[in-house]
Design a protein that fits this description.
By secondary structure, this protein is mainly beta. The protein has one helix and 27 strands. Helix content is about 0%, strand content about 40%. Strand 3 and strand 4 form a beta hairpin.
Length: about 400
C-alpha cells in the first residue's frame, strides 16, 4: 500500500502492513529524530490484513532533504505493524491521474492518442510545443511510458509532449500501445521526470499504471449548453460539466468551421466534422479499417429511444497529419431521422428541436465495442425539411 503525507509540497510514499482488523489506528512518524503526527485509516480488506491509507499533515517538518520514514503503527485492539517510506523534497513531481485529453476519462487512454497527465510539480513553468514533430522533453519535463516498473531504454518510450505546466502535461502516445483489439489491453507505467527528478510514486518503485486501449474514441469537449427544448437569447457554450438541465457539446463543426451548438444547430442532410482522439492506428479514408460506426442512441420514436433508427453516414475518418493524436470524422445527418419512426409514418408537420446523443465505436458493431464519451448534437428540423403529416 502506498501512503502519502504532504506539507508545502513535501511528500512521502511507502508501505504499511497491519495484521489486524481494526479500522482506525494511530501512528507517529520519525524523520531524522523529528516526531510528526498523522493518522492511519483502513479502507480495503486484502489477503493477510487490511490495506491501509496513510493521510494527514506533517505537524513539524522543516527538513528539505530527502530521507527515510520509519514508524510503528498501533491499533486500538493491540494490533501493530511497521510502516516505512521515502520522503521526497518539496517540489518533487507527483502524478494524480492519466486520462484522455479529449474526455478526461481514465478508461479512454488509447494508442496514438492525445493524453493528459494531471498532478503537481510536473513542470518548472508553462511550455508549449511549437509544432509537430513534438519534443520528448519540453522545458525540463519528460513523460516515459514503460512496460515494466524499471527505467530502462529497452522497456520505456518517451512520449511526445505538446504542453507542460506544473499541474498538467499533454502528451501524444505516438508508437505506444497496441495496434489491434486485444482481450486484455496492456497496462503501461507512466513515469514523469522533471529536471531529472522522478515523480514521487515512481521513485518509490510504484509508478502510475494505466491500461492503453487500441481504440477508444473520445470526442473533444466544447462545454455545456442550453438544450434545444429551452433555448433562450442568453444561451452560450460554457466551460465545465453540464448541470442543471444543460447538455454537453462536443467540438463538432459545420462546413464553415463553426461549432455546432443551440444557436447553430445541425440540420438534416448536411455535413459535419467530429474532432476526436483515440482512433489508434486506424487507416484514413471513406471506408476506414477497422470501420468507424456512428449512431444517435436516443432518436425519438413516439416516446421510446430507437438506436437502430439513428445510424449515421460516416463519409470519412482518419488522422489529421499536422496534429499527431488528432482525428476527424466527417458525417452526414441522415434525412430519415426526420421522416418519422420506422413503421409509424411521418411526423406531424411542425418544427422540432432535439438533442441527440452521439455514440462512436470502432469495429463491427457500436453495441459490442468501446463507445465514445457522450456528447449531444443539437438538431433542428424545420417544417418542410422532409415529408410530414398535415
Amino acid at each position: 500500500m502506498v501512503g502519502q503525507l504532504s506539507q508545502n509540497g513535501a511528500s512521502i510514499a511507502g508501505t504499511l502492513a497491519v495484521s489486524g482488523s481494526s479500522l482506525v489506528c494511530t501512528a507517529s512518524v520519525v524523520v531524522s529524530g523529528l516526531i510528526v503526527g498523522t493518522s492511519v485509516s483502513a479502507s480495503l480488506f486484502t489477503t493477510g490484513g487490511y490495506t491501509m491509507t496513510l493521510t494527514g499533515t506533517i505537524s513539524s517538518d522543516s527538513l528539505s532533504m530527502s530521507g527515510a520514514y520509519s514508524t510503528a503503527a498501533f491499533c486500538a485492539n493491540g494490533d501493530s505493524g511497521q510502516w516505512t517510506a521515502t520522503r521526497f523534497a518539496a517540489g518533487s513531481p507527483t502524478i494524480n491521474a492519466v486520462t484522455s485529453a479529449a474526455s478526461y476519462a481514465q478508461n479512454q487512454v488509447a494508442a496514438e492518442g492525445e493524453v493528459s497527465v494531471f498532478g503537481s510539480g510536473l513542470a518548472d513553468s508553462i511550455h508549449y510545443a511549437t509544432g509537430a514533430p513534438y519534443p520528448t522533453i519540453l522545458g525540463t519535463t519528460e513523460v516515459l511510458v514503460c512496460n515494466t516498473r524499471s527505467l530502462s531504454p529497452s522497456t520505456c518510450t518517451a512520449a511526445e509532449i505538446t504542453f507542460a505546466s506544473p499541474g498538467q502535461v499533454n502528451i501524444v502516445l505516438t508508437g505506444i500501445g497496441p495496434t489491434v483489439q486485444v482481450f486484455q489491453p496492456p497496462s503501461e507505467f507512466f513515469i514523469a521526470r522533471v529536471g531529472g527528478i522522478l515523480d514521487a510514486a515512481s521513485a518509490a518503485g510504484a509508478p502510475t499504471f494505466v491500461a492503453i486501449q487500441p481504440f477508444a474514441p473520445s470526442v473533444f469537449i466544447a462545454g455545456n449548453d442550453c438544450p434545444m427544448s429551452a433555448v433562450a437569447p442568453n444561451c452560450s457554450v460554457s466551460q465545465g460539466p453540464a448541470t442543471n438541465g444543460r447538455v454537453t457539446r462536443g467540438i463538432i463543426t459545420d462546413v464553415n468551421g463553426k461549432i455546432v451548438w443551440s444557436d447553430n444547430p445541425a440540420r438534416l442532410g448536411r455535413y459535419y466534422t467530429v474532432w476526436v482522439t483515440g482512433l489508434g492506428s486506424i487507416r484514413s479514408g471513406a471506408s476506414p479499417r477497422p470501420a468507424v460506426q456512428m449512431v444517435f442512441v436516443d432518436v425519438p420514436a413516439y416516446g421510446y429511444p430507437n438506436p437502430s433508427y439513428g445510424i449515421i453516414d460516416v463519409v470519412y475518418a482518419g488522422a489529421v497529419p499536422q496534429f499527431p493524436g488528432l482525428y476527424q470524422i466527417n458525417l452526414q445527418i441522415p434525412l430519415d431521422i426526420g421522416e418519422g419512426p420506422d413503421g409509424y409514418g411521418s411526423w406531424p408537420c411542425g418544427d422540432y428541436g432535439w438533442d441527440l446523443t452521439l455514440a462512436i465505436s470502432v469495429g463491427s458493431s457500436y453495441d459490442s465495442n468501446p463507445v465514445s464519451n457522450p456528447v449531444q448534437i443539437p438538431l433542428l428540423i424545420k417544417n418542410g425539411d422532409v415529408p410530414c403529416q398535415p
